[in-house]
Amino acid sequence: MRDALAASRTSLMSLPGLGTVLAAKVLGHIGDISRFPTEHHFASYVGSAPLDASSGKNVRHRLNTGGNRALNSALHIIAICQIRDGGRGQAYYLRKIAEGKTPAEARRALKRRLSNVVYRIMKRDQRTQLATAA
């Protein structure tokens, strides 16, 4: 797997909580990142985009049970590692808890944020590879 990741020239493993196995799983399931026009489309595919469950004046969101469950599981592992190990992920999680969110809601918000980070890293890697090929 290390050789395959080195050949893909990805910088995904720079993300805390994302090791060799998870990076290979993410790359294998996503393939070409250009098939997702925005990070919102990517989040929907991964299953980290919350679904609106609002009614009247009550604004609520609920868990998205759709999407690619393997990628959602990978995001969950990354989120749990970041919450445990400290750093920016833990600070974001604790800030959401301080805002009054439940631990599950705060973890869900972190997973959504992490899907944006993964998308941006993969887009940046793609631009770098295109620039070096030209």
How much strand content do the residues show?
under 5%
Mean pLDDT: 90
Percent range of helical residues: 55-70%
Q: Count the DSSP helices.
A: 6
Number of domains: 1
Shape: globular
DSSP E strands, number? 2
Uncertain segments are: none
Largest sheet, described in full?
Answer: 2 strands, antiparallel
**C-alpha end-to-end distance:** 27 Å
| Class from helix and strand fractions | mainly alpha
Helix-strand string: HHHEEHHH
- How do the strands of the widest beta sheet line up side by side? 1-2
Radius of gyration: 16 Å
Q: Can you put this structure into words, describing what you see?
A:
The chain is mainly alpha-helical. It has one domain (2-51, 68-133). Helix content is 63%, strand content 3%. It has six helices and two strands. It has helices at 2-8, 20-30, 39-46, 69-85, 88-98, 103-133, and strands spanning 51-52, 61-62. Strands 1-2 form a two-stranded antiparallel sheet. A hairpin with an 8-residue loop joins strand 1 and strand 2. The longest helix is centred in the last third of the chain and has 31 residues, at 103-133. The two termini are 27 Å apart.
Which helices and strands appear, and what pairs or packs with what?
Blueprint lengths: L1 H7 L11 H11 L8 H8 L4 E2 L8 E2 L6 H17 L2 H11 L4 H31 L1
Antiparallel strand pairs: 1-2
Q: How would you concisely characterize the structure shown here?
A:
With 134 residues, the chain is mostly helical. It has one domain (2-51, 68-133). Helices cover 63% and strands 3% of the residues.
